[in-house]
Amino acid sequence: MQEYEKNKSLTDATRRLMINILTAEMTDAHGTSPPKSVRVMNAQGIVALFPYLENPYSQHGYEHYYDPESGSGYLAWRLKTIQRKTAEERSVSGSKSAKIGGPSPGRSRPFTTDTVLSDEDVESAIAVLRHSADENTIREKMKATFNYRHSMVSDDRKSPDVFSVFPRFLDTPGLIEQDFRLLFGEATANKFLEKWATNLKTKIVKESHGLVPNTELLELMSNAESAAEVEIGWDSDMSAILLLLHLLPPSAQGRKRPGKMSASQAVDNLIRFLKTGTSVQQHLDNITISHQPYLLAQGPTRSRIHTFFIVIDKLALPCKATDSVGALDELFKAHYVFGTSYCFALTNFFTFLQTTVYNIDVGKTKETPRVAELRARILH
User: Fold this and answer.
1) Contact yes or no for 54/62 (Cβ under 8 A)
2) pLDDT at 98
3) What is the torsional sign of CA 259, 205, 352, 354?
4) Burial class (CB in 10 A: 0-12, 13-18, 19+), 79
5) What integer is the mean pLDDT of 157-162?
6) How much is the pLDDT for 89?
């Protein structure tokens, strides 16, 4: 109570303590499987007592503590742990979790272009795209073929061919941005850059002070808060972005997967550094495991990046942005433009951006309690 009065929030450690206290009370009174009504009452009580912990994007505001429809949330998870420990003689089923959020082939898109081309016109436009050197012509023909390309991305059989049919993604920066704007409109496309510049970065850095400090985190926090050029490590904006990843680390993937991945280990799934003079093609040739899209940052040091690429399908797509914030914006949008699901290690991270920042599929996307909790902290 004192911590909440002081900070209008609870640290992760205090929240865990609160959950443990409540579940202990529930199990004492009702056994290891308390009725749904009791679980709901406790979740309601949390947000009633601590209104700044309420999630403004959910139906009732308390679903990240207990969601009666899905049976998920911090209270439910703690109860499941208690049940598992008291029933050690039974093996725990390792059922796979439902897919959480993110784009995927076949999902509905809110926007399309007004231009509907015949098959002959599409073939003609694609032929022009292959040979034209004029950027305005390329943008015009890419816009004209958007509906055809969107149908390719949505078709599992045709989606692997999108870069061979539309190779201009490989040499013309800005085409990902153009397609995303056709998908979602101007307002949605601008949200991340607008919110980052106003207060999103500041709030992320502030929240990071509640994490258990280590050498890596202290360096990220110092760089994120620095107004001068950083000497060692990533620049101020990328450091803040990586702090967000630490606030939303990978979720446990169940017993069938190898041990839980830390936020530090997940960084390589988000961005990799390539020193100036090192071959981008050699980096691509050395890829042995298929990864979801990630950023490749090239420069003399991590704090002075001059070129960003989005690596996908062992190809390097040049980013239009030359700064960390713009590059991350393009990386997020690439998932939707190419119908690519989120890397499992970054699902919490990208789902937070999707729902809280871009406001895409709010209320329709399954989120972990950690995502909803951080949103409640930041929005309040």
Assistant:
1) yes
2) 35
3) negative
4) buried
5) 90
6) 41
